[in-house]
Amino acid sequence: MEMLRDAQIDPAPLADKRVAILGYGNQGRAQALNLKDSGINVVVGLRGGSGSTVEAAAAGLTTDLIEDAVRSADVVMMLAPDEIHGALYREMEQHLRKGAALGFSHGLSIRFGLVKPRADLDVFMLAPKGPGTALRSLYQQGKGMIGLWAVEHDPTDNARGIALAYGRAVGCARAGLIASSFAEEAEADLFNEQAVVWGGVPELLIAGFDTLVAGGVSPEVAYLECVGELHLIAELIDARGIAGMKEAISNTAELGSLLGGNRIINTDVRRRMAEVLAEVRAGRFADELREEEQSGYPRLEQARSEARETLLTQTFRKLDETP
Ligand SMILES: NC(=O)c1ccc[n+]([C@@H]2O[C@H](COP(=O)([O-])OP(=O)(O)OC[C@H]3O[C@@H](n4cnc5c(N)ncnc54)[C@H](OP(=O)(O)O)[C@@H]3O)[C@@H](O)[C@H]2O)c1
User: Fold this and answer.
1) pTM score, whole prediction
2) How many A from CA of 81 to the centre of ligand 1?
3) What 3-state DSSP class applies to 126?
4) Contacts of 300 (CB under 8 A, 6+ apart)
5) Which residues line ligand 1 (CB under 6 A)?
6) CA of 22 to the centre of ligand 1 (A)
7) How far apart are CA 234 and CA 242, in angstroms?
8) pLDDT at 27
9) Residue 87's pLDDT is what?
10) Cβ atoms 102, 22 nearer than 8 A
11) Whose CA is nearest to atom 48 of ligand 1?
């Protein structure tokens, strides 16, 4: 694995380019501001009547309607939600300059065919491995967030240079850029979202909380044990790795984790993880995402409203209000 950092990357491929950032959400805001602070000519492209126009302008960014931003740009970065990339690309394709570069921060749209770029376009990925809020705050502290980069199409022979210079300008190359592919990034990211950090871990916490409460433990104590300690282990793993985390905790906790961890995450869980990966690769999740968007997000809305009413959420609110 080659990890590229600032000193190994030529900023020149982006120096005289205009970059259009489409979307001013979690990633759009962070990337636009980091690019601007790195001296790049940036315009934020927004739909007509967008509430983000005032916010982006107040942050000192140039804004324009999507089609005008695209028309004026050498590099167009797709930072609207993944599930609308297909429709957004179809609307804006006619405005893209010949030989422009089209960038993504997630491999999904290309890997699962939501976007089929015109043959003359360079297509690259710069995927920061974390949320936009952290990408921005790290940049402001003079640090960076590791990013994955990839090139899918390179008709101009410039795509690699643009991808790396982009990764440098948003601050990712301060921490390191790792070469990947749209397929690898998309599959690994969707797998993690479903099976590990964003899907598996919250369900594990909820199941632990429910088990303790059903066993007669008060919701407050169950919450503090099963949910409240999560940030402690996250910080320890981040600072010391998993082996270092185990050495940092008490012998009691370490032996407990040794005896209990494999009983919970057993071979059956690992088999189902492999099933999730196979389903992701077969495109089943990408189909679900498209359907969810086309039907107005009914499952997401229902899950959000149910989660707001659970005993666990009520307990969180109660503890959060405690001075
Ligand atoms: N969330 C993260 O931190 C993160 C991390 C790594 C990679 N990524 C990737 O980065 C990309 C952006 O994700 P995100 O979470 O930053 O997105 P997001 O916050 O949901 O994006 C919101 C922005 O998209 C615009 N938008 C929404 N629907 C639109 C439409 N139909 N037409 C035009 N603009 C529309 C919104 O416009 P208005 O302002 O008008 O509402 C808003 O500015 C995705 O590919 C994602 O996978 C995200």
Assistant:
1) 0.94
2) 4
3) strand
4) 292
5) 23-28, 46-47, 50-52, 79-82, 84, 88, 105-106, 127-128, 131-132
6) 8
7) 10
8) 98
9) 97
10) no
11) 27
Give Cα separations from 244 to 95, 156, 222, 260 (angstroms).
Answer: 52, 47, 26, 19
Whether 17 contacts 74, CB under 8 Å: yes
**Among 85, 106, 153, 231, the one annotated catalytic:** 106
| φ, ψ (nearest 5 deg) of residue 74 | -90, -30
**Cβ count near 321 (within 10 Å):** 7
> What is the Rg, in whole angstroms, of the alpha carbon atoms belonging to the chain?
22
* Four-CA torsion 274, 278, 279, 280, nearest 10 degrees: 100
How many Å lie between the centroid of ligand 1 and the Cα of residue 248? 39
Amino acid at 323: P
CA distance 252 to 188: 34
Report the nearest atom of ligand 1 relative to the CA of 47.
33
Residue 146: count of CB within 10 angstroms of its CB: 17
Contact 150, 181 (CB under 8 A): yes
Report the distance separating Cα 222 and Cα 240, nearest Å.
27
106 labelled catalytic: yes
Per-residue CA distances from 28 to 84, 90, 290 (Å): 15, 20, 21
Residues in Cβ contact with 316 at an 8 Å cutoff, skipping those fewer than 6 apart: 223, 227
Helix (H, G, I), strand (E, B) or coil at 39: coil
Question: In 10 A of CB 172, how many CB atoms?
Answer: 32
Return phi, psi of residue 62, to 5°: -80, 135
DSSP at 158: -
Chain-centre distance for alpha carbon 181: 15
The ranges of the chain with pLDDT < 50 are: none
Amino acid 1: pLDDT: 79
State the Cα–Cα distance between residues 323 and 320, nearest whole angstrom: 8
